[in-house]
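Is this the right way to post structure tokens for a design question? Let me know if I should format differently. Anyway, here goes:
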């Protein structure tokens, strides 16, 4: 008897392109969201996008509440929740990079309110996914939440964002290659639930960036268009899978451990990109695609070595040998690597 079922939550509206920042009021109206919104933003995105969007809402007769956060922390989530309850708002809009959108996502999930995502940097796939990532001490928690009701991604704003944030988003997407490899391995060896559709979408997303890496250049709206579409697809793959598996494998464990050992040394996307070079080598050795991953990262000016990350060799080796302990997720790292094996893979791939 067939009794399988699934419940997939996806954004209702995705608006991407030139000057779509001016369409946020229309997007909210199309969703039939009523009442007062709360904007969750951070200092630079507030000036670039949140204040102009607030002016659009004022012109429509709506007075939004605004909270500006400095860091992505659980204390910030609590602060947003408190402001939302005190101001009597009906829905949230996250305007900014990863931290503002993740905070809005987690707060809206707690409040049982819808939220919309307005990214100002194409830095990671959290702009559309059903998961939020928040640092907590020397670790980082990935928390299940509701995906945004809508995403409004203005390519003009995204193209003007710091280039390293864009390359971090690209690297995060390219690492989907090894995340899916790990997912398939876990399905074969541990009977982990697996979605062929989500895996195929995630791989296709990585291929888009690898195939178009030479077109990804600073300040170009077309580049922002390509990267943003890829980030959208990656986030949708996670929603279809009901987990972060399509976009998070051993390369993410490596990055999370680096966050503990060398906090703030490099951007998340850059760390997973370098991790993906090494884990791709573990999956396929010299016959694998690790060189393609490395070359694509280099083409978009993303780091491919420990030096370019600003992390010393000893920290890379320690992360490789200990990151399997972070969470109960089976990957190519299995029950861990010894130091000699870790040094060999890092050396052969040119990471150290």
């Amino acid at each position: 008897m067939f009794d399988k079922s699934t419940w997939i939550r996806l954004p209702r509206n995705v608006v991407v392109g030139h000057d779509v920042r001016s369409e946020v009021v229309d997007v909210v109206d199309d969703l039939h969201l009523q009442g007062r919104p709360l904007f969750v933003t951070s200092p630079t995105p507030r000036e670039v996008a949140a204040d102009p969007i607030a002016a659009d809402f004022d012109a429509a007769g709506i007075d939004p509440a605004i909270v500006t956060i400095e860091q992505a922390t659980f204390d910030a989530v609590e602060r947003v929740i408190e402001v939302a309850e005190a101001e009597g708002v009906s829905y949230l809009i996250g305007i900014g990079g990863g931290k503002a959108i993740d905070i809005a996502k987690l707060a809206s999930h707690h409040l049982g309110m819808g939220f919309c995502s307005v990214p100002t940097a194409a830095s990671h796939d959290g702009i559309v996914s059903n998961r939020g990532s928040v640092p907590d001490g020397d670790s980082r928690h990935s928390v299940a939440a509701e995906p945004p009701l809508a995403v409004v991604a203005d390519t003009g704003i995204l193209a003007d964002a710091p280039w390293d944030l864009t390359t971090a988003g690209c690297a995060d997407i390219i690492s989907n290659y090894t995340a899916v490899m790990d997912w398939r391995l876990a399905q074969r060896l541990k009977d982990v639930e697996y979605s062929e559709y989500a895996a195929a979408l995630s791989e296709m997303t990585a291929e888009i960036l690898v195939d178009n890496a030479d077109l990804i250049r600073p300040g170009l709206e077309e580049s922002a268009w390509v990267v943003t579409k890829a980030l959208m697809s990656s986030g949708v793959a996670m929603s279809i899978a009901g987990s972060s598996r399509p976009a998070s494998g051993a390369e993410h464990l490596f990055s999370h451990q680096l966050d503990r050992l060398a906090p703030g040394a490099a951007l998340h996307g850059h760390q997973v990109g370098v991790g993906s070079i090494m884990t791709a080598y573990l999956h396929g050795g010299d016959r694998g695609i690790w060189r393609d991953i490395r070359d694509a990262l280099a083409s978009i000016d993303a780091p491919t070595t420990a030096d370019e990350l600003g992390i010393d060799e000893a920290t890379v080796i320690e992360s490789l040998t200990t990151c399997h302990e972070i969470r109960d997720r089976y990957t190519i790292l299995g029950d861990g690597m010894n130091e000699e094996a870790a040094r060999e893979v890092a050396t052969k791939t040119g990471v150290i």
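Format looks fine. Someone answered above. Worth noting: The chain has two domains: 13-160, 163-348. The CA atoms of residues 215 and 294 lie 16 Å apart.
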